[in-house]
Amino acid sequence: MVSLKTLTEKLDLKVALSESELATAIQSLSSLDSAGEGEISFLSSKKYRRVLSATKASAVLVTGEDAELCPEGCIALVVDDPYLAFAKISHYFATESKIAPVIHPSAIIDSEASLGENVSVGPYAVIEKGAVIADGVIIGAHCFIGEQASVGRHSRLHHRVTLAHHCVVGENCQIFSGAVIGSDGFGYAPTETGWYPIAQIGRTVIGDRVEIGANTTIDRGAIDDTVIESDVIIDNQIMIGHNVKVGSKTVVVAQVGIAGSTEIGKNCTIGGQSGFAGHLKIADGSFFAGQSMVTKGTTQAGYYASGIPAQDGNEWRKMVARIRQLEKMNERLKALEERTKED
Amino acid sequence: MVSLKTLTEKLDLKVALSESELATAIQSLSSLDSAGEGEISFLSSKKYRRVLSATKASAVLVTGEDAELCPEGCIALVVDDPYLAFAKISHYFATESKIAPVIHPSAIIDSEASLGENVSVGPYAVIEKGAVIADGVIIGAHCFIGEQASVGRHSRLHHRVTLAHHCVVGENCQIFSGAVIGSDGFGYAPTETGWYPIAQIGRTVIGDRVEIGANTTIDRGAIDDTVIESDVIIDNQIMIGHNVKVGSKTVVVAQVGIAGSTEIGKNCTIGGQSGFAGHLKIADGSFFAGQSMVTKGTTQAGYYASGIPAQDGNEWRKMVARIRQLEKMNERLKALEERTKED
Amino acid sequence: MVSLKTLTEKLDLKVALSESELATAIQSLSSLDSAGEGEISFLSSKKYRRVLSATKASAVLVTGEDAELCPEGCIALVVDDPYLAFAKISHYFATESKIAPVIHPSAIIDSEASLGENVSVGPYAVIEKGAVIADGVIIGAHCFIGEQASVGRHSRLHHRVTLAHHCVVGENCQIFSGAVIGSDGFGYAPTETGWYPIAQIGRTVIGDRVEIGANTTIDRGAIDDTVIESDVIIDNQIMIGHNVKVGSKTVVVAQVGIAGSTEIGKNCTIGGQSGFAGHLKIADGSFFAGQSMVTKGTTQAGYYASGIPAQDGNEWRKMVARIRQLEKMNERLKALEERTKED
């Protein structure tokens, strides 16, 4: 529960609300159509304007332009960017308890590891020799922090995150459960009798304000490092191979795979389940649709896509058959061209 | 080891077996062609009928129609649905020891968590404040149950499952190792300097008799809940985004990704590695082939597919080249049409 | 730090180096262009020959043919296979501390489990009844080894690996963090009211020198075993279904999915994100490009591929539209053929 006064202060809003309006208690955040009394909502897309005029929310974040659509009894909070304002106040309604800066007695922390102030370490976490955990860091239950690894200020590793030896996580990062940072890259030399493993001596180095989703894996470099620059957001179940570089502010959606040594530029968007071959160079600002099959680099910002969207199964079967006959169709076309030319 | 008598009782079979037949000791379950004495098998598909007549199994589950194909010395157990009968008796041959309803002394259970009767909690599991674990639940080693989360009667979380705070698992569910239920959804507001994370205040709510495979992740909702209805079966390494809904009895095969707010209907089958864009609505009874790229919703039950199956690499290269020339082929065709029209 | 003498001995090199050359201290391994004094590098591809002639490395692994390209002051170490030589010496530069053969006191090891000599068991690992851990095995922190499971000599399970009951890992294997070996296969019999789970009574059996990447899952067999033969290398986030067989020396790249009962031959290469339908038979030596959609088996070695690589989004949209019109294009072509025939 939080007052509108607190929320507007957080948003640095200079709105002319009456004392009674400011005192309104907001219990939760809700979507426009399901919001009721004591709830705040937001309008971030023109297409929901109609819903706004019927909302039962006590207050709504809107642009100046849309404010007049607010119904009677609903307080319009005018902001430049309602979606960002919503993001900012969402944290008042987070349901998780604040995590105390306490080292759980069951955590096993090597005597040569270094912990900053106000660090929280959950039950059964293991922190090895030479690891450096900065101020305000939260290490969840069952996490493993390898030797000489480091975590920057105010970063949080949720439950059972693996941060392998010598790897680096910057400040204000969030890494979710099951993520494995710094596992060995997939490097083997072929021999006559089998595969000879190559020691992976690089690290995984992660910048500041990076978010890494559940069960994502980011392998350590073979010789040089695998690098995730600052402000990158990475969803769940993504596989990033050794020596990959991901440029700042890039967004990587779930289940993407990026093969070794590929460099993704800054400000890119990588749609879910896309796959990148190794050793590619992707230009800043490249946007890939979901399930893209990326076999060549890009040299300029732009929208890229591949694949044929799903359709009715019978139509699909016919389409595949026709595609397989394209070679023949081309020959038929050529024959026709020649024949009609002769005429 | 179990007698045929016990098995037929389990199946509620009213077959006229002699006392000596009923006393037959069955040691294990096997496929028709590898079964030997003391083993039971089943015929669930017409195409294996020939194998049936040569089986060395001591007993076989068959339909009435196929019973006569059983060879000499092999007892035919006539059932309506041999595959289901096989499923039912398979549990007699499970190799895992029965798990005792014991709380391992190393489990860390908050004093304000509530545990029902006959609960088993494995070593190093962590159960936080306000969590509610119902009767007969099994929590495996290294599991993490967040505050206020709940697990319904007779559900089992295998080893190292994460169930985040406030999330709900129904009754008789099975969740396999490495699954992460209720991690934060991928929600960020863009700002000039980077991505502002949105608190994910919804939950993940899972119905009854739901099965969730190893290393699958089901994110919590942004505002409302992510919902998996009862009787849904979900394979390994599946990614279900925030606010997705999956209708009852739907089957989701491995490595599928479902982006935020998409609603999958009831009784659907989602082939492995398929990907769904966000905010789609998929009709009840939709069946998607593996690797489907689903960019639009469906309005009726049916079979849907996408993609071109793998082929010989040289053929594939030609095909891709031809597809890239389709625009030109169409122009050539048009030119021909005009030219021949003039004739 | 290691002397060239040690390295050349390791490589069994009979090179005529002077005493002072042999005494050269090598501090690290580096790529040709970033190497400096005290560093060793290698040339494994003709295309980097130009870089070789400008390298600042103290020593370089090269073939006899390329030795003359080594610049002044750089010692050429002539070997048959520079990449393999690099692989062999890479381990001298590994940054991880040697793991002592110590059983951490917090590990919970059943009194009926059997441990060989020189075994290392990390903190909070759990090893159940009847498990057999051979000599020289390393079990990382938070690992779970189920009852009757076994791990062969000198294999290493990194942190939080799950090896389920009765499953078998051979000798000299490496399994990385988050892998789940032997989870139940996805087997259910349909009933009128829902899905009836089938007990998965097979095992997962893994040969010698197999490598399994982070967060990969290999399900146990339904009746018979899931089998990974010796010398197979498996990357991260791969899903191998029940009763799959993978032949020796096969390489499986990240995020591949292989559905139940499919048999992959020996010496195959499976590109990343490829998906295999169930019950296929793939010939020895089959090579699949990344993102292959494999719906039929192969009967001979060869290169196979599928899918259309990503392209500019506008071109892609036109291409998809044209593909959807192929049926009509074919009709137009046919009409033309008939019309011009009549001429």
Which pair of chains has the greatest number of interface residues, and how are they split between the two chains? A-C, 78 and 74 residues
Gyration radius of chain A, rounded? 26 Å
What is the CATH fold-level name of the domain at 2-93 in chain A? Udp-n-acetylmuramoylalanyl-d-glutamate--2,6- Diaminopimelate Ligase, Chain: A, domain 1
- The CATH class of the domain at 2-93 in chain A is Alpha Beta
Overall pLDDT level of chain A: 95
Strand order of the largest sheet of chain A: 7-10-13-16-19-24-27-30-33-36
Number of contiguous helices of chain A:
7
Please name the CATH architecture of the domain at 2-93 in chain A: 3-Layer(aba) Sandwich
Question: Strand tally of chain A, please?
Answer: 38
Distance between the termini of chain A: 85 Å
The helicity of chain A comes to 10-25%
Subunit structure (chains A, B, C): Homotrimer.
Pfam families (chains A, B, C): GMPPB_C, LpxD
Keywords (chains A, B, C): Acyltransferase, Lipid A biosynthesis, Lipid biosynthesis, Lipid metabolism, Repeat, Transferase
InterPro entries (chains A, B, C): GMPPB_C, Hexapep_transf_CS, LpxD, Trimer_LpxA-like_sf, UDP_GlcNAc_AcTrfase_non-rep
Overview of this protein structure:
The structure is a homotrimer of 343-residue chains. In chain A, 17% of the residues lie in helices and 26% in strands. The first copy, chain A, contains seven helices and 38 strands. Chains A and C meet through strand 20, strand 21, strand 36, strand 37 and helix 6 of A and strand 3, helix 4, strand 38, helix 5 and helix 6 of C. Strand 38 (311-312) of chain A pairs antiparallel with strand 37 (302-305) of chain B. Chains A, B, C: GO terms for molecular function: N-acyltransferase activity; UDP-3-O-[(3R)-3-hydroxyacyl]-glucosamine N-acyltransferase activity.
